[in-house]
């Protein structure tokens, strides 16, 4: 398991995308996201892009996100989807793309 610093992920169960100007361009299995307020550009592959797309639609827990991804994609046996989702959410949080839902 990858070690990450403590974050809001440790205190909240549900997440959604921040309500901010975010321009998303999808090309095949890649997403380019431009955050107008900060001027940051983020590049995502298929799974993180899909997670961000879901979080822009509403609030989800990690378990709900895992169910959504399993319904859309086939994963290799042994792939730790829960850990993967937590790592992506942590990165999204670090880049101010998501916020906790209280």
Describe the secondary structure blueprint for this structure:
Elements: E1 14-17, E2 22-27, E3 30-35, E4 40-44, H1 46-57, E5 60-61, H2 62-72, H3 81-94, E6 98-101
Antiparallel strand pairs: 1-5, 1-6, 2-3, 3-4
Helix pairs in contact: 2-3
Global Rg: 13 Å
Which runs of at least 5 residues are low in confidence (pLDDT < 50)?
Answer: none
Largest sheet: 3 strands, antiparallel
Strand order, sheet with most strands: 5-1-6
Number of helices: 3
- List SSEs in N-to-C order: EEEEHEHHE
What is the strand content? 25-35%
Mean pLDDT: 87
Describe the overall structure.
The protein has a domain at 8-18 and 46-101. It is 36% helix and 26% strand. The protein has three helices and six strands; from the N terminus they run ββββαβααβ. A hairpin with a 4-residue loop joins strand 3 and strand 4 (40-44). The longest helix has 14 residues, at 81-94. The model has no long low-confidence stretch (mean pLDDT 87).
Features:
about 100 residues, alpha+beta, three-stranded antiparallel beta sheet, globular
Q: Nutshell version of this structure?
A:
The chain has 102 residues and is α+β, with helices and mostly antiparallel strands. Helix content is 36%, strand content 26%. It has a domain at 8-18 and 46-101.
């Amino acid at each position: 398991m990858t070690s990450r610093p403590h974050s809001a992920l440790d205190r909240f169960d549900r997440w959604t995308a921040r309500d901010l100007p975010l321009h998303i361009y999808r090309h095949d299995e890649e997403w380019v996201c431009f955050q107008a307020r900060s001027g940051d550009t983020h590049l995502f592959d298929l799974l993180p892009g899909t997670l961000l797309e879901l979080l822009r639609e509403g609030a989800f827990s990690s378990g709900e996100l895992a169910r959504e991804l399993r319904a859309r994609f086939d994963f290799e046996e042994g792939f730790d989807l829960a850990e993967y989702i937590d790592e992506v959410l942590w990165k999204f949080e670090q880049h101010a793309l998501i916020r906790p839902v209280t």
